[in-house]
Amino acid sequence: GEPVTYQANVTGNTYKDIPVNEIKPFISIADLKTKGVTPREKINLDANELATLIELKAKNGNEYWIGLNNFEAIMRYNPRVMYAMAVYEL
Q: Alpha-carbon distance 20 to 22, whole Å?
């Protein structure tokens, strides 16, 4: 029942300094925000919660997602981002 991932908006260029598609969350929500990464939904995330930045190739450019601890849990079974996103979407 806990969140897995949220689609993200990215602005500026400092988000490009963040490693993408890491399995283990390593950067705080607050640090993501300072680098221009915010959830598209209006949600309240704990600023100290660790997350990972997910980058997916899409028809119209890249999509970005904020992966949380449950995303890591899915990736422990199969460490491929596309697999984890498919499981989440289903």
A: 6
Residue 33: other Cβ atoms inside 10 A: 13
Q: Do residues 33 and 25 make contact, with C-beta atoms less than 8 angstroms apart?
A: no
Q: H or E element: which one contains 85?
A: helix 81-89
Q: Tell me, letter by letter, the H, E, C secondary structure of 23-66.
A: CCCCEEHHHHHHCCEEECCCCCCCCCCEEEEEEEEECCEEEEEE
- Convert the pLDDT of each residue in 5-35 to its tens digit: 999 999 999 999 999 999 999 999 999 999 9
> What's the longest Cα–Cα distance across the chain?
34
**Residue pair 53/36 in contact by the 8 Å Cβ criterion:** no
Rounded alpha-carbon distances, angstroms, from residue 32 to 37, 39, 87: 5, 10, 24
